[in-house]
Description:
305 residues, 8 strands, 8-stranded mixed β-sheet, 12 helices
Amino acid sequence: MQARLKIGIVGPGRVGRSLAVGWQQVGHQVVAVTSSSRPQVMDSLEVQLPHAQVVALDQMPAVDLLAITTPDDVIGSVTQSLADFGIIRPGQIVLHASGAHGLAVLEPAAKVGALTIALHPAMTFTGYSLDQQRLADCPVAVTASAVAMPIAQALVYELQATPVPVEESQRQLYHAALTHGANHLFTLLTQARAALAAAGIEDPGAYLRPLLQATMENALEADPGSLTGPVVRADLGTLRTHLTQLQACAELNQRPLGSDPGYGLGQAADTYLALAEATAELAWEAGRLSDRQRDAVLLALRDTP
């Protein structure tokens, strides 16, 4: 995109700041951001976007691109407010960075005549300079009209990221997949670390890393033949013992959130049971378990006291 844009950011959280810094680095002007009640965010704004004016929502100046990076549930109401304030105008680019929403939530802007874009990087953000490295080559789901799509793609390329078109009707399924794969993985690994710590492993993260890296590579290659463990082997006694041990450990672990040996252990047995059942079904679908073996595994899991 050759023309330099004046950009306004509504909702200067981690994603908003990361996008703003990325576009600022290629010559666009981030002229205004809405205020935040969090002192840490305000401190970050002074460092990352020193030339941006901090304004109230109804005081956003005229900009070429308005990025709404608020929490998902308020994007629609914020867009409506911006339209009511007269801040959105015909021909302006209005985008949000939510994975769960497409263009419908920006309808108040479209009615004014703005070009609307849904743009979602498949990445987790820290709010610091590391985010710019993570954006490089990151896939970004883009939903836009035929007219706005070239603009959306250019904005993504300027972040050194990769635009991937996603249909409006598929946005929620797309986002559910990312949440299940990333957020739930975080929960799972937190529980695994806590259980290893309870077993006396001094550095659970380092202990898990080689195994997890190999497992992730196998899973991302969609190779069911690489699946290992007691479910695939139909080791019923081992599965029962695992559940019993996790249940006993959870009963003993009464520490508050975040304390050593880790948190999340209280729900680890329930997570193990649900995922072991899902793994049994996956192994059966892939031909790794027979009907008899799958049924035996599911029965052993459900009958464990």
